[in-house]
UniProtKB/TrEMBL annotation:
The Phosphotyrosine protein phosphatase I domain, residue ranges: 5-136
InterPro entries: Ptyr_pPase, Ptyr_pPase_sf
Signal peptide limits: none
PANTHER family xref list: ARSENATE REDUCTASE
Protein name as it appears in the record: Arsenate reductase
Species annotation: Deinococcus seoulensis
Keyword field: Arsenical resistance
Pfam families: LMWPc (PF01451)
Length: 156
């Protein structure tokens, strides 16, 4: 019996972008009836930011049970079909994965310290991108090599 593809979304603190991306990828896969095993982690753990919880709740996704994790908290951390970094420092600190693991880097703006409009813009960019990831996987293609064009994120 084939296993579901395993996808890891990696960021620095696993507190905002990677948490939102995890929930968005899981939901897009559910809607597309695509079985994925989705995780997020950080190069260091902190806490899930309240603004991330707020903007995700606005679209019906609940992050209240999410916790910030490192790779040590993820089951079988060296065995992923795809590893996607969503910030530059995580891309630089990302561990080496076996040759069969597809690595992608989608550099999303850090919404931390910004207005809720900035958080919403990043959420919407993440949603567009991870819907395209699901579309590619559903069609038997690799995870897209670059991220989708989205409207710019407000400065603050």
């Amino acid at each position: 019996m084939p296993t579901s593809p395993r996808v890891l979304i990696l960021c620095t603190h696993n507190s905002a972008r990677s948490q939102m991306a995890e929930a968005l990828l899981r939901e897009a896969a559910r809607q597309a009836e695509l079985e994925l095993d989705v995780y997020s982690a950080g190069t260091e753990a902190t806490r899930v930011k309240d603004d991330a919880k707020t903007v995700m709740a606005e679209i019906g996704l609940d992050l209240s049970s999410h916790t910030s994790k490192t790779l040590h908290d993820v089951p079988d951390p060296q065995n992923f079909d795809a590893v996607i970094t969503v910030c530059d420092s995580a891309a630089e600190a990302c561990p080496v994965y076996p040759g069969q693991t597809v690595r992608r880097h989608y550099p999303f703006v850090d919404p931390s310290g910004g207005s809720l409009d900035r958080w919403r813009a990043v959420r919407d960019q993440l949603q567009t991108q991870f819907e395209s990831v699901v579309g590619a996987l559903k069609n038997g293609q690799e995870v897209p090599p670059s991220y989708a064009d989205s409207p710019p994120v407000p400065a603050a």
